[in-house]
């Protein structure tokens, strides 16, 4: 009997036209996440991935595999020869291991991939059920609402398992195009990136800093956040652009209360160029309706006006506390709350406009040489592969 981990993928994923590519993407993402922990090898058998590794590494491996989108379940399975005797013994082993401490109801659930196997699924379910009832006094059968299931997959070998870990769900990365996340150093944007990646988008990140007005640490923090995010999104490009000159020009030539809106519009214009050049199809932000002055409908539409791409805002209807909870779950929260000023906080006006009008914003922009400023900012770009 050999212990293995098996990974099953979501249904949608298996039906798509690009199944093979998505499957391979998910596999390489899993391998990238587990390579530091160590495993022996992997193989694929009828749509499931099997991972050979020593059992004491299972927990650590599962934790990393759980971060890959498109996965329905991760199971701890026991592989035996395809004969009734070995199958029954394996089911007994599984029950002994997990369910010997108190009374339980159970049901057996066979999937017969190898149709030539001598017992069909209902028959094997019965044989296993009767056998376990004989062997264990603490078990009873409940086919509608069992405490646990014993799964038996009949393939080239038999796989017996019961302990199931739910995957993250979602769609495999790459199945929904490529986007550019506007990644600040805050709590919200990494969560927004996570959510779009969960729907299969390949997420890259752009960060705007204002060195030397903002510190090197603030910049490093954004890069660290991108790194933390990458265990979910897979490898990504991290663009960083210096906005300090733009902030200076805004401060000298425009009303102070418009600073945030004006700078956001520059972020969009710069992002337009990057998206054009690298083929990204949409922007992603961490905006949430009403959270701050720049996140009113009026502000959002004035900001959006300077974007040539759809702006996706996965957090738009989510309360701050729920976003915080999510950021704790995905492991970015501690990094996000490190106290380094970003450009928004340094240049933020005391009384920002909450209901900007496009025509007044455009009038203020008339005092700026927009094309030159955008071009000069793009010349400061640094690209880091994460
Ligand atoms: P976050 O927690 O993501 O910083 P926030 O609540 O601080 O968001 P804002 O500062 O209004 O909200 O920013 C709204 C969104 O604009 C951010 O979620 C992010 O997508 C984008 N953004 C803001 N500042 C920057 C920046 N310096 N670089 C890149 N994107 C930014
Ligand atoms: Mg912020």
UniProtKB/TrEMBL annotation:
Transferase as UniProt keyword: yes
Listed A to Z, the keywords are: ATP-binding, Cytoplasm, Nucleotide-binding, RNA-binding, Thiamine biosynthesis, Transferase, tRNA-binding
Family matches, as SUPFAM superfamilies: Adenine nucleotide alpha hydrolases-like, THUMP domain-like
Pathway this chain belongs to: Cofactor biosynthesis; thiamine diphosphate biosynthesis
- Entry EC no(s): 2.8.1.4
Which Pfam families does the entry link to?
ThiI, ThiI_fer, THUMP
GO MF annotation list: tRNA-uracil-4 sulfurtransferase activity
Q: Which reaction does it catalyse?
A: [ThiI sulfur-carrier protein]-S-sulfanyl-L-cysteine + a uridine in tRNA + 2 reduced [2Fe-2S]-[ferredoxin] + ATP + H(+) = [ThiI sulfur-carrier protein]-L-cysteine + a 4-thiouridine in tRNA + 2 oxidized [2Fe-2S]-[ferredoxin] + AMP + diphosphate; [ThiS sulfur-carrier protein]-C-terminal Gly-Gly-AMP + S-sulfanyl-L-cysteinyl-[cysteine desulfurase] + AH2 = [ThiS sulfur-carrier protein]-C-terminal-Gly-aminoethanethioate + L-cysteinyl-[cysteine desulfurase] + A + AMP + 2 H(+)
Residues that coordinate or bind ATP: 182-183, 207-208, 264, 286, 295
THUMP domain residues are: 59-165
Is Cytoplasm one of the keywords UniProt gives this record?
Answer: yes
Identify its protein family.
Belongs to the ThiI family.
Q: What does this protein do?
A: Catalyzes the ATP-dependent transfer of a sulfur to tRNA to produce 4-thiouridine in position 8 of tRNAs, which functions as a near-UV photosensor. Also catalyzes the transfer of sulfur to the sulfur carrier protein ThiS, forming ThiS-thiocarboxylate. This is a step in the synthesis of thiazole, in the thiamine biosynthesis pathway. The sulfur is donated as persulfide by IscS.
State the protein's name.
Answer: Probable tRNA sulfurtransferase
